[in-house]
Queue: 2 jobs
Job 1
Amino acid sequence: MMTGMTNNPSATGFFGDFGGRFIPPELEAIMEEIKTEFHREIKDPEFLKELEFYQKNYIGRPSEFYCAKKLSEQLGGAKIYLKREDMNHTGSHKLNNVLGQALLAKRLGKKRIIAETGAGQHGVATATACALFDMECVVYMGEEDTRRQALNVFRMKLLGAKVVAVTSGTRTLKDAVDVALADLIANYKDTYYMLGSAVGPDPYPEMVRYFQSCIGKETKQQCLEAEGRLPDYVMACVGGGSNAIGMFAPFFYDESVKMIGIEPAGRGLDTQDHAATLTLGTPGILHGFKCKVIQDENGEPLPVYSVSAGLDYPGVGPEHCYYQAIGRAEYDSATDDEAINAFLTLSRVEGIIPAIESSHAVAGALKLAPTLDKDKIIVVCLSGRGDKDVAEIADILSRKGIE
Ligand SMILES: *Cc1c(COP(=O)(O)O)cnc(C)c1O
């Protein structure tokens, strides 16, 4: 990386060549309204006080910074720390972003919240915040995902949300986003769109990064306290890229800290069944912003696949595209099998059952740690817990004849 580089977006929301706003004219005004309000609120001590109150008392921040000693010893290389976002209320990093945006929506006077969800984690987090703040909640979810994550559908209903199964396209996350955007265009006057990752038109990527940056900021402080220095590597799984950017962005100017994002390689990068957008995608426009996209020659997004419902998105956050372009972060991938192996390993060795999404980041660390000296430090963002995945994993193992 060249010195003097910045990770602040341009006035029009570009991170280098990526990001921006490619939306129907009727959405321009609403995006501007959100952007103006966002920049006003994050300078308002009252807003920040309220945000901090809920982060601490409701989410349970700061999350633990745990040294996975047994795992590190077993691998015989670098020391591995886990940033325990799985310990947050609702079981993942998602609520960090949702609570921030919900407070913003409240200040904008919006009473109706809509959201898309893949694995159901963002839907559950949104339904949770809507219950807390007395807002109407509609969650769009691909029909295929409602099947894979039936328990999360029930959770959302318990919390008072309406869940709409989306039956168009591949019936997964991408289709849910399409339908949610159509709802927003029809109802934007009283409706706030709660976007679940660091994607979408400006100002969402910047906003989601802001609300997720608690991950990296805490990590920095906790690592300094535990080790007296910064980590050598920070790692995170990359779907849309929100947990990863929350971990990475606060380290942007600390050039000694290497950043590695792990994408879902599904059944392999040499098959069509993956969602490794940064690794194999090409620049394009998706859902109102410019990023790397898995697409055909006409710019139509192609079906993507991962064992994890939360990672199978054909695009990725613009800030990651920028970090990759300037060489500030590296992006590698892990296959379904590698992720499942990491899921089993962390459960067995540390007594922590990780989300199958987070297992991709763990898989990256399992590969990297043994190649490094014992005085190196790797921090893995454990973005969520695996309770939601145990049934699916049990299924997969029994199909493979493993007990
Ligand atoms: C949603 C989710 C992800 C993927 O989303 P990002 O925006 O890439 O962070 C990763 N891990 C968990 C546990 C999730 O719920």
Note: Residues 92, 94, 119, 121-122, 197, 237-244, 310-311, 355, 357-358, 383-384 surround pyridoxal-5'-phosphate (CB under 6 Å).
Job 2
Amino acid sequence: MDQTKILLSEQELPTHWYNIVADLPFPPPPVLHPLTKKPVGPEDLAPIFPMALIQQEVSTERYIEIPDEVRDVYKLWRPTPLIRARRLEKALDTPAHIYYKHEGVSPPGSHKPNTAVAQAYYNKVEGTKRITTETGAGQWGSALSMACQFFDIECKVYMVKVSYEQKPYRRVLMETWGATVIPSPSTETEAGRRILEQDPDSPGSLGIAISEAVEDAISRDDTKYSLGSVLNHVLMHQTIIGQETLKQMEIAGEYPDVVIGCVGGGSNFSGFAFPFVRDKLVNGKQTRIIAVEPTACPSLTRGLYAYDYGDTARMTPIVKMHTLGHDFVPAGIHAGGLRYHGMAPLVSLLYQNNLIEARAYRQLTCFDAAVQFARAEGIVPAPETAHAVRAAIDEALAAKEEGEPRVIIFNFSGHGHFDLSAYEAYLNGKLVDYEYPVEKIRKAQAHLPEVAIE
Ligand SMILES: *Cc1c(COP(=O)(O)O)cnc(C)c1O
């Protein structure tokens, strides 16, 4: 086959999301209440999430049907293309075949609307009038802003301050879709005020912004909270990506040796990779599946596999995951979407059981790869996506070294059109690397909650 762009028709859009829990040989550890430290029940989560999403969160059904209203919105940009990176292969002079799944074609420019649209829909059905959320780089905030606009729901976004300052156009995009955006930590919540008292210049973090958004949602009856990553139901909504990719690889007549995705909270990686993990679990495939993270926030490669809070102010449930500690504040790298202290419990569980691999890269080497990719393929990757590009290029170079063919696929989680100030810094030699923050992580990890369950 010598196709470059592998497309599916609208009729081939998957009808169901895939729930990997149904195929796991080991059960996920229970989620604990932040105060009682006992396993949480649906009623504990009801003040923050609609019941349909809570049910999906604990579901053990293998496939969950995608509502028609959600599929109709997906059709605005899905199915997304799978592209053979022939020009990159040539530039690298590698025998490897490289494919990328282009999630950057969605209106907000990333994979995030795959779950934003589903979450807004279920909230609408259950009568939610207003949704709060946090955003790092602004990708999640913009996806949710658009989704809330489509379903006529008010949207309030707490945006991590360092990104708010680095990416003003993301804010404008969210406001264009009708949302209200404020920098976090803010003075509007107890959680925000507490952080500002200790550190008026705090760059903010996802953990802090989550605390603010949750506090806001709990304090009002008409408001629910929405999270763009980490949770089981979010990862499940993203599996539309990997299911499409499976069909597209079949059309290409190849099966991947290596599957790569970048990880912040773990949602795009999971959505892309879980259908391939299923092939390992159920069909005995030997695929290598690699999660890529920044050295400045290395939750999988350097985190502890332990129970920890999802947010800084300890308002969210306690989950078992790879964590750097809930009060760890990572350096202000440009890949804002990868600055989360923990990792999705399902990704952590797979990593712990050796079903997936992980590696960490520094910022500069990721931008080297991103620029090389842009010059070969034309498309400019988001700084988060650049981590996956780096790993894909390294795998292709390893294939060249070993003189063997290798089929490499990676998820192109989003484009970098709103990250050009980071590219400007890179091109002017002003982008810096951050050392692995040993001492900061050690300190933060000393604050993990004590729980009775192991
Ligand atoms: C948010 C984001 C990420 C990281 O989030 P995950 O939940 O780990 O996918 C990666 N890439 C892009 C483009 C993003 O917007």
Note: The chain is about 40% helix and 15% strand.
